[in-house]
Design goal:
heterodimer; A: about 200 residues; Rossmann fold; five-stranded mixed β-sheet; 5 helices; 6 strands; about 30% strand; B: about 500 residues; alpha+beta; four-stranded antiparallel β-sheet; about 50% helix; elongated
Chain lengths: ~200, ~500
C-alpha cells in the first residue's frame, strides 16, 4: 500500500510542480502541410483553390467567350457554409479570383458588399472631390456571370476517431439566362484520431 | 533494512506534508466567491459591471476553470447585446472544451488525493449544449443563419457522442428539445424545409424523453411545420393534435405562417441554480464504528453511527493467531458531495406587445435549467460517490502515514501535529461545485408572424404575480419576406 501511495504522491507532486513550457516558433513555407486538429485549414483551402482554377480555366464554357474575343465579367455571389465548422470561404474564393484574373481569361467585379462601400465613396466624392478627380456613378461594369456555391461536410465519429468528408461545389451561372455554364467540385476526406488520455 | 524503511517513511511523510500544503493552497473551490462577486451584478441586470468584475477577478477561475471563465464572459456579453464579443468568448470556450477531450492522467491522479476541483472543468452535458445554443443565438441576432446552423451541427455531433456513450441507458441526457426546436426554426429561416421538419420531429421526441414537459407552443409549431410539409405519418406517430390551438402563449402559428416572416422573441428569465456542497464528517474506528455528522435540509446537525467495515482477511488471520492488528485505530474522515442550490427568480415570463403584436403574446419556457441540473446530479451520483470514497480513503491513509512518520517522543507536539494534519486534510475535501450559474433559469419564446417590413415591439418582464419588473423596446426591426428575425431580452432578476 505504501509503495502505491509513494508512487501516487510522486506523480501527483510532479503534476503540481510541472508548469507550462515556453513558446517555440518555427517559420515554415506557406505551402507546407501542417495538420494540428484535423479541422479545415489553409492546406484544404489551397487544395480547393488549385483544383477549382484548373477545372474552371479548362472548362468548355470558356470557348464561347474566347471565340467572341470577349473577356467575361464575373461577380462572386453567396458561397454558403453548410459544414459543421466555421469556415471562411473567402480564403479560397480570393485564391480562385486571383488565379483567374492573372490568367487573363476572366475579369471580376466587386461583390455586393464591396459595391456598397464603393458607392458610398462615390457619393462622398460627388460632394467633396474636385471635378477632375471625381469618379462618376452609373459607370459600373455589369457582371455576365455569377459564381455561387456551397461547402458541405459529413462527419462519422466514434470516441476519439472521426472520418470527416468535405465537399466544395462551385458554379458559374449566366446572369441573363440563369444557365449553369460550369460546375466544379473538390472533395477532401480526413481520418482524425485523438487520444483519450494524456500525461 | 530498518534504515531503508525509516528513509522511505521520512520521504513519504515529507512528500505527504508538502503535497497536503500545496493542495490546500492550490485546489480551493472558488465557486462561492465567484457567486458572491459576479452573480449579484448579473442578477441586477448590470451585465457590464459583472463583465468588469470577472475580468478584475480572473484568479477566481484559475487554470482549471478556463472553460467557465469564457462561458461566463460570453453569456454576459450576450445579455448585454454585444453579440460579436459574446461570439469571441463563447468560441474560446468551445475550443477549450474541444481541447479537453483528452483526459490528463496526472490531473486525474491528483484529484484522488486533493479534490475534483484540480480537474479541468469540462462542463455538464446540458451546459455544453447551451454553450452552442447561445453561440447560435448570437449568430441569429446578427442575422448569420449559416453560422447558427454550424453550431447546430456541432451540437448534433456532441449529442451523437453522448448517445453512443449512454448506450442503452435511456435515462441519460442525450438530446435537448429546445435545441431541436430552435434548429428547426433556423432551418426554416434558411429555406431548408425538409431539415426544418426533421428538426421539429426530433424536438417532440427529445421533449418527451426529458424532464421538461413539451411546451404547447412547440407542439403547435411542430404540427404547423409537419402539416406544411405533408408529413402526415410523422404527425400520427407523434400523436400531435390541434388541442392546444386555442392558446397563444409562445405565439400562435398556422401552417401558412411556417414559411412566412416572423419576429421571434427569446426571453432569458431568472438565474440558473448553483451548486453547494453537503459535508459529512466524523470518525472511523477500524473494526468498530463509523460516526458521521452532517447538516440536514434545515441546517440542523445530525449524527449517525454505523458499523465500520471489518478488518481485511490478512489482519483477521493475524488476529486469529494472536498477533497485533490495526483494530481500534481511529481516523478522522470528511467528505463533501455537490448539492443543488436554487436561486429564487423574480422573472417568470415575458409579454410581447406593440405594433408588431397588437394582441399581447405571453412567452412560453422552452427549457428550464433546474430539472436539467437535478438530472445531472442524479445521473452522476454513483460516479461522484465512488470517486469521493476512493479519494477520502486515499487521503485518510496518507494523513495517517504522515502522522505516524512524523510522530516523536513529545506527546504535546504529537497531538498538535496530528490535529494539524487532520485540519490540512479537511481543508482539501471540497465538492466540485463548479457550474455555469450565469445561465438563465428558463429560456422562453414568443413567435410573432408579421408582414415583411419594418416593425417595432415592446417586451416586458413579469414576476409571478404578473407585475412588470422590466421592459425593453425594439424599434426598426426590418424583416424581409420569409425572414425569421430573432430579438433577445434578458431579465435575470
Amino acid at each position: 500500500m505504501s509503495r502505491i501511495m509513494t508512487s501516487l504522491l510522486k506523480s501527483a507532486l510532479a503534476a503540481v510542480l510541472l508548469t507550462g513550457c515556453s513558446t517555440k516558433v518555427t517559420r515554415v513555407t506557406h505551402d507546407s502541410t501542417i495538420d494540428l486538429t484535423g479541422k479545415w485549414n489553409d492546406t484544404d483551402s489551397r487544395l480547393v483553390a488549385e483544383e477549382m482554377v484548373k477545372d474552371a480555366t479548362n472548362g468548355a464554357w470558356y470557348a464561347k467567350y474566347a471565340a467572341a474575343k470577349t473577356t467575361p465579367t464575373v461577380v462572386v455571389g453567396e458561397i454558403r457554409n453548410k459544414s459543421h465548422e466555421h469556415i471562411s470561404t473567402e480564403t479560397f474564393i480570393n485564391d480562385i479570383q486571383r488565379a483567374l484574373i492573372n490568367s487573363g481569361k476572366v475579369e471580376f467585379v466587386a461583390n455586393k458588399a464591396e459595391r456598397g462601400q464603393i458607392r458610398d465613396e462615390k457619393a462622398d466624392q460627388a460632394n467633396n472631390a474636385s471635378v477632375g478627380t471625381r469618379q462618376d456613378a452609373g459607370e459600373e461594369s455589369g457582371a455576365k456571370l455569377m459564381m455561387i456555391g456551397e461547402l458541405n461536410s459529413i462527419v462519422d465519429q466514434e470516441g476519439g476517431k472521426a472520418v470527416v468528408f468535405y465537399q466544395v461545389n462551385l458554379e458559374l451561372v449566366e446572369i441573363e439566362s440563369h444557365k449553369k455554364l460550369w460546375i466544379g467540385d473538390k472533395k477532401i476526406k480526413k481520418f482524425v484520431e485523438r487520444s483519450e488520455t494524456k500525461f | 533494512m530498518s534504515a531503508r524503511i525509516a528513509l522511505r517513511k521520512s520521504v513519504l511523510s515529507r512528500l505527504g506534508a508538502t503535497l497536503l500544503l500545496l493542495l490546500v493552497t492550490g485546489c480551493a473551490d472558488k465557486s462561492l466567491l465567484r457567486l458572491e462577486k459576479i452573480a449579484n451584478s448579473a442578477q441586477k441586470d448590470d451585465y457590464q459591471k459583472a463583465i468588469a468584475d470577472i475580468r478584475k477577478n480572473k484568479d477566481l477561475y484559475g487554470g482549471s476553470s478556463q472553460l467557465l471563465y469564457h462561458m461566463d464572459l460570453g453569456i454576459l456579453f450576450h445579455y448585454a447585446g454585444q453579440y460579436d464579443s459574446s461570439i469571441t468568448e463563447l468560441s474560446k470556450a468551445t475550443a477549450i472544451h474541444d481541447d479537453l477531450f483528452s483526459k490528463s492522467v496526472s490531473n486525474e491522479a491528483l484529484s484522488f488525493l486533493a479534490n475534483d476541483n484540480v480537474r479541468p472543468y469540462r462542463g455538464k452535458p446540458h451546459e455544453i449544449v447551451l454553450l452552442h445554443q447561445f453561440l447560435a443565438f448570437d449568430y441569429l441576432a446578427l442575422g448569420k443563419y449559416d453560422d447558427a446552423l454550424v453550431e447546430s451541427r456541432q451540437t448534433q455531433l456532441y449529442l451523437d457522442e453522448l448517445k453512443r456513450k449512454a448506450g442503452k441507458d435511456l435515462g441519460k441526457f442525450t438530446d435537448d428539445g429546445m435545441f431541436r426546436y430552435l434548429t428547426g426554426i433556423a432551418y426554416q429561416a434558411e429555406g431548408q424545409k425538409d431539415d426544418a421538419a426533421i428538426s421539429m420531429y426530433q424536438a417532440i421526441k427529445a421533449y418527451r424523453g426529458s424532464p421538461i414537459a413539451l411546451p404547447p407552443s412547440v407542439a403547435r409549431g411542430a404540427l404547423a411545420t409537419l402539416k406544411a410539409r405533408d408529413r402526415e405519418n410523422d404527425i400520427q406517430e407523434l400523436k400531435l393534435t390541434d388541442a392546444a390551438a386555442g392558446s397563444n402563449a409562445g405565439g400562435a402559428l398556422a401552417p401558412s405562417d411556417v414559411d412566412g416572416s416572423e419576429i421571434i422573441v427569446i426571453g432569458e428569465a431568472g438565474r440558473s441554480p448553483a451548486l453547494g456542497q453537503n459535508v459529512f464528517w466524523g470518525t472511523w474506528e477500524r473494526d468498530g464504528v463509523l460516526v458521521i455528522h452532517f447538516h440536514d435540509s434545515q441546517g440542523k446537525e445530525v449524527t449517525q453511527v454505523l458499523p465500520a467495515p471489518g478488518l481485511p482477511a490478512s489482519e483477521a488471520n493475524r488476529a486469529g493467531r494472536g498477533g497485533r492488528t490495526r483494530s481500534g485505530t481511529t481516523f478522522h474522515v470528511k467528505f463533501a458531495l455537490p448539492s443543488l442550490k436554487n436561486v429564487p427568480s423574480g422573472t417568470r415570463f415575458f409579454t410581447v406587445a406593440g405594433e408588431a403584436s397588437p394582441t399581447p403574446v405571453k412567452t412560453e419556457a422552452l427549457t428550464d435549467v433546474e430539472p436539467l441540473m437535478s438530472r445531472f446530479l442524479e445521473e452522476n451520483q454513483a460516479a461522484m460517490l465512488t470517486r469521493t470514497v476512493i479519494r477520502v480513503v486515499a487521503r485518510t491513509i496518507t494523513a495517517q502515514e504522515t502522522k505516524s512518520a512524523i510522530s516523536g517522543n513529545n506527546p504535546l507536539i504529537n497531538l498538535l501535529l496530528n490535529i494539524g494534519t487532520d485540519v490540512l486534510a479537511d481543508q482539501l475535501e471540497q465538492a466540485d461545485t463548479r457550474a455555469w450559474f450565469l445561465l438563465p433559469r428558463t429560456v422562453q419564446i414568443a413567435r410573432i408572424p408579421v408582414k415583411p417590413g419594418v416593425h417595432s415591439l415592446n417586451v416586458e418582464a413579469h414576476d409571478a404575480s404578473g407585475r412588470t419588473i422590466g421592459s425593453k423596446a425594439f424599434e426598426n426591426i426590418a424583416v424581409k419576406p420569409g425572414e425569421k428575425k430573432f430579438v433577445f431580452y434578458a431579465s435575470l432578476k
